Amino acid sequence: REIDLKSGTVRTVAGNGEKGMPKDGEPATSQPLVSPRAACYGPNGIIYIASRNGNAVRKVDAMGNIHTIVSKSGKKGYSGDGGPAKNALVNGPKHLCLDDAGNLIITDDVNHCIRLYSPKTGKIHLVAGVPQKAGKQISNNPLKTQLNRPHGARLDAQGRLWIADSMNHRVLRFEKMPSID
């Protein structure tokens, strides 16, 4: 739901109150959702939604239609880095935020990693963690650092990557994210 802080008006932007997989391209408010966990605004009126138990990430476009952008199958798992995000698998996406370039940073909780979706290319990339391997190992390289059920990630104004590493009971800071080719 969206709340207009000035008027106090509350409106539904996605979901019809039923549990289920939404049909792409349909009005977002007429479609079911599966466990929406996080949402964030993107550029040009886009709203991104993490479907935790639906194992997918969706967007509501400026016209109000819903589209699956990560893991069209909705099956839990891990795959797809460097390739089309629609064909990738995620497992329990829990948190979303944007970087300054408009890329979507996804906390892929049960896969113990942080991923990045590029709206420009439609591809998904690993940016932190060792996928499907929980652990405590720390490195200056986010791709060699083991996470355990991360619950959130964010970039600060200096471009540093912060990760709330929930089950390791720590907050990590990396001086930069790995470059995405």
Characteristics:
mainly beta; 13 strands; four-stranded antiparallel sheet
Count of structural domains: 1
Instruction: Summarize the helix and strand pattern as letters.
Output: EEEEEEEEEEEEE
CATH class: Mainly Beta
Rounded mean pLDDT is: 96
Q: Sum up the overall morphology in one term.
A: globular
Major sheet description: 4 strands, antiparallel
| CATH architecture group name | 6 Propeller
Strand content: 35-45%
Task: Estimate the helix proportion, in percent.
Answer: under 10%
Instruction: Give a count of the beta strands, DSSP E runs of length 2 or more.
Output: 13
Enter the CATH topology name. Neuraminidase
Strand order of the largest sheet: 3-4-5-6
Instruction: Evaluate the radius of gyration.
Output: 16 Å
The number of distinct helices, counting runs of at least 4 residues, comes to: 0
Q: What is the CATH homologous superfamily assignment?
A: TolB, C-terminal domain
Q: State the distance separating the first and last CA atoms.
A: 35 Å
**Which segments are poorly predicted (pLDDT under 50) over 5 or more consecutive residues?**
none
The assigned structural class equals mainly beta
